[in-house]
Amino acid sequence: MTSIKHENAPDGTRLAFCEDGPEDSARCGFFWLGGFRSDMLGSKAEALAALARDTRRPGFRFDYSGHGASGGEFTDGTISAWLAQSLHLFTRKAPGRRIVVGSSMGGWLALLLYRELRIRNPRAADRIAGLVLLAPAADMTADLMWDMFTDQARRDIMSAGMWRRPSLYGEPYVITRRLIEDGGKHLLLKDGLDVACPVRILQGDADPDVPAAHAVKVFGALRGADVTLSLIKSGDHRLSTPGNLTLLRETVLRLAERADGITI
Hints:
By secondary structure, the protein is α/β, with parallel strands linked by helices. It has helices at residues 43-54, 79-93, 105-120, 122-126, 140-145, 151-160, 177-183, 212-221, 242-259, and strands at residues 5-8, 14-20, 29-33, 59-62, 98-103, 128-134, 162-167, 170-176, 193-194, 199-204, 222-223, 227-232. Strands 1-2-4-3-5-6-10-12 form an eight-stranded mixed sheet, sandwiched between helices. A two-stranded antiparallel sheet has the order 7-8. It has a two-stranded parallel ribbon with strand order 9-11. Helix 1 crosses helix 9. It starts with a strand and ends in a 5-residue tail after the last helix.
């Protein structure tokens, strides 16, 4: 079983992570970004970890602050903080070529990671050999939250600083004013994004949280020579059935195999 390790984020938060597969492999590896209130021990993250071990490729997954085994409070979390943590761990702990795989909010963070690296560290951005986005919730704080909330929910957020949003997956999600306002700094769908690497979007057509129409919007915002969108019949938001996980593994592995042997 993979052991959990820890790394301090730039702000001092103790982040939990796992390294899967060999650390010294020259093969293209994987970098996992989970969803809002998800953790690195979920079925999709575990499937990717197993793929890393099975194919002798390096894999990396971690918990954002306020998630899973990492420190910090969930209600203190923002897109800025989780992006900074993703950038820190990608540059310090995930060497070599990587396929970045992001689920839901992690899909948004994957695109932001790519965009920020293109600006700050182009050589590091060149290490991203592909993006696989599962029900990507890009711009979610606006498109999938604020714009869809009732007037009462908006009033609660502005006056009380938070609102407990009912969830299909257990306890209500706490949505904070800080999260909503900070998310506005990272919107990318209006301006779009140029991507030099291949992008694969996997989206369920029965997803109640990130509608298929939103995935089409993400697809339209990405400018690149190799961007595809696959709609999965009857697929829900989790995309964690055995068939869904097989599709995920096959999609990621194909991109990794293409990247093998490419030097940067």
